[in-house]
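Incident log, structure service

09:12 report received: a user says their structure output differs between two submissions of the same chain.
09:20 pulled the input from the user's history:
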Amino acid sequence: MDDGGFCRFWKIKRIFATIKCEFVMKKIVIVGCGKLANIVANASLQGLLPEYEIVGVYSRSMEKAASLAEKICKGGYDCKAVASWSELLALHPDYLVETASPAAMYECALPALKQGVSIVTLSIGAFADDDFYDEVPRTARENNTHAYIVSGA
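09:34 re-ran on a clean worker, output below:
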């Protein structure tokens, strides 16, 4: 009986066992702290987004932002409620998830993309503006980022 295959298997297994793989969570920040933001937060807390960590939330209502951040923190994440765009982007997220409104999308998309943060927006209405529709993908390409457009409705 030839057990060469068996021995090769164990040798390969030992090699892979010695390689340390570092898993890096992607950081997410959320703009808007209403119903859609809570759906995203719940998905994360239920383990449906295992490769992502929500590190910050922003809302015009600091009370709503604090409430959502507290909920996320109770799930084991270190999430901050912030009072400004600059504070939000200072958290160095990989993705900004916009769940607020087309007006919020206008305000946050280009600054985020220019800082190397990809965006995921549920407010597709902002793209009815032809200039904005052209400027977002151009800015994303120039900054090696992406703009993902999904519908929250």
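09:41 both user submissions now match this output. Likely a transient worker issue. Closing.
09:42 reviewer note: The first strand starts at residue 26 and ends at 31. Strands lie at 26-31, 52-58, 80-82, 95-98, 118-121, 147-149.
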